[in-house]
């Protein structure tokens, strides 16, 4: 049995930032339990075609505004290599199934129509929620391939053009792709080095335990007991759960006693976005690589079918790598089939766009975030119109169990900086709880001693004791 002040479940960016704040505020006996063999969570790199690619989070979103993005500050501090990504040109690089690019005018008109329709739908939802009224004109649904493609771009990538998103309002509208040999995850390792013992880039501190799959959290008046899959048992005064919302919705982690109904209902109501970046390596480059051509779109009768493409030449010149992004049902479908089947589908799409003579891909990399039992998705996806109480209930602690992660961020859910700030906020809340608990302990001991001796404290005794605890006497 190992005893700590605080156990943190999960070593993603929320777990690491939470631990760092605790240690810096004097709570040094923290214990981080991570299910995998690495820190980083949904920030993960893998070498592919001799370059590191980001399987999960890949961009620092929200740069260039009046307020500085804290993750951009970390990237600058640790000299993380990035390159600017401009999504705005993607809508003008839309290919049909015959390989022709839609004229700029048609693309612009289709995009404007999609934005107007999305705004109308948003107003309709707002009216329905606030007063029960229905908007006079119902938004039209996308039907043609180009409409479906633009609808996918708009709702899966550019919702800021429909509904103001705090990330872009607060921090700026620019986005930077991480293109560093150390990977995005190096930010977490650099943070960890500031409070954990490391040697030659390896974390050797016994306060971080890898390959510890937490299966049960038992809470009592006196503390919390955490049990892992290998039979290990750990004890602490408090626990911070930084597992993803997808994991909380699964049966991987159980709580004893059961979490209250208001908590479980809120967790189950939160949507989970599955976001899959499929990487394809080619013997040579056959796609346009000029200015404004980093992204291109494939218009298909099926929404989201290999729609959004990006080349890696800006990040890694000469890498000859293409990335296609799938989401939600398309992601789940691809995860369930073989990589060979996925490569065949992707090659068919590319040959529609660039002709039948293009070379066949030499390698493919397909992340599987949905089927990963330690993730169960990519990030939280709150509806455009949602009850703020839902997020508050997901975020709220239950006794000695605190919750953190990007899904608990009030303004920045779904983003890396949301996870980073959530870890900090949760630790500050826990520190305040610990402070209040320490203040109350002498008073509880005092009243308990009086009870044991059958004495009834008078008002002056209680007043003096409370003032002594608070430091005013």
Primary descriptors:
globular, 21% strand, 36% helix, 473 residues, Polyamine Oxidase, Chain A, domain 2, 13 helices, 8-stranded mixed sheet, FAD/NAD(P)-binding domain, alpha/beta, disordered C terminus, 6-stranded mixed sheet, 2 domains
Condensed summary:
The chain is of the alpha/beta class and 473 residues long.
Instruction: Give the termini separation.
Output: 40 Å
CATH first level of the largest domain: Alpha Beta
- Roughly how many Å is the radius of gyration? 26 Å
Number of helices: 13
Which blocks of ≥5 consecutive residues have pLDDT under 50?
Answer: 453-473
What is the total number of structural domains? Answer: 2
How do the helices and strands line up, and which of them pair or pack?
Layout: E1 2-9, H1 13-24, E2 30-33, E3 45-48, E4 51-54, E5 59-63, H2 70-77, E6 82-85, E7 94-95, H3 104-131, H4 145-156, H5 166-171, E8 174-178, H6 186-193, E9 198-199, E10 202-203, E11 208-209, E12 214-219, E13 224-228, E14 233-241, H7 245-249, E15 254-256, H8 261-269, E16 271-273, E17 275-281, E18 295-298, E19 308-311, E20 321-327, H9 328-335, H10 339-354, E21 363-365, E22 379-381, H11 388-395, E23 401-403, H12 416-452, H13 459-470
Parallel strand pairs: 1-2, 1-14, 2-11, 7-18, 12-15, 14-23
Antiparallel strand pairs: 3-4, 5-8, 6-8, 9-10, 12-13, 13-14, 16-22, 17-20, 17-21, 18-19, 19-20
């Amino acid at each position: 049995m190992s005893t700590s002040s605080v156990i943190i479940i999960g070593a993603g960016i929320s777990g690491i930032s939470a631990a760092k704040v605790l240690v810096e505020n004097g709570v040094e006996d923290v214990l981080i339990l991570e299910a995998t063999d690495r820190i980083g969570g949904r920030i993960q790199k893998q070498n592919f075609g001799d370059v590191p690619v980001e399987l999960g989070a890949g961009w620092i979103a929200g740069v260039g505004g009046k307020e500085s993005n804290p993750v951009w500050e970390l990237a600058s501090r640790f000299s993380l290599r990035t390159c600017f990504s401009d999504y705005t040109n993607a809508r003008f690089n839309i290919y049909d199934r015959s390989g022709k690019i839609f004229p700029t005018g048609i693309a612009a008109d289709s995009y404007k129509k999609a934005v107007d329709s999305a705004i109308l739908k948003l107003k309709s939802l707002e009216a329905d929620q606030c007063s029960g009224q229905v908007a006079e004109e119902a938004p039209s649904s996308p039907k043609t391939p180009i409409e479906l493609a633009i609808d996918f771009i708009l709702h899966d990538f550019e919702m800021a053009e429909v509904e103001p998103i705090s990330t872009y309002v607060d921090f700026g509208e620019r986005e930077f792709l991480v293109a560093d040999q150390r990977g995005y995850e190096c930010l977490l390792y650099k943070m960890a080095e500031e409070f954990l013992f490391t040697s030659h880039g390896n974390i050797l501190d016994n306060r971080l335990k890898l390959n510890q799959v937490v299966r049960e959290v038992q809470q009592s008046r006196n503390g919390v007991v955490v049990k892992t899959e290998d039979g290990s048992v750990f004890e602490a005064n408090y626990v911070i759960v930084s597992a993803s919302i997808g994991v909380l919705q699964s049966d991987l982690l159980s709580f004893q006693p059961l979490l209250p109904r208001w908590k479980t209902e809120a967790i189950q109501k939160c949507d989970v976005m599955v976001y899959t970046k499929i990487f394809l390596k080619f013997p040579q480059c056959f796609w346009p690589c000029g200015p404004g051509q980093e992204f291109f779109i494939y218009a298909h009768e099926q929404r989201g079918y290999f729609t959004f493409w990006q080349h890696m030449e800006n990040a890694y010149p000469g890498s000859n790598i293409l990335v296609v992004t799938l989401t939600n049902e398309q992601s789940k479908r691809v995860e369930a089939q073989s990589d060979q089947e996925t490569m065949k589908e992707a090659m068919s799409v590319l040959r529609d766009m660039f002709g039948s003579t293009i070379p066949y891909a030499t390698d493919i990399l397909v992340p599987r975030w949905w089927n990963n039992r330690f993730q169960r998705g990519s990030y939280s996806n709150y509806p455009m119109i949602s009850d703020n109480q839902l997020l508050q209930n997901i975020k709220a602690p239950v006794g000695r169990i605190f919750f953190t992660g990007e899904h608990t961020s009030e303004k920045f859910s779904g983003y890396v900086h949301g996870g980073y700030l959530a870890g900090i906020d949760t630790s500050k809340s826990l520190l305040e709880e610990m402070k209040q608990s320490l203040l109350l302990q002498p008073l509880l001991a005092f009243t308990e001693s009086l009870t044991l001796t059958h004495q009834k404290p008078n008002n002056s005794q209680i007043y003096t004791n409370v003032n002594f605890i608070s430091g005013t006497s």
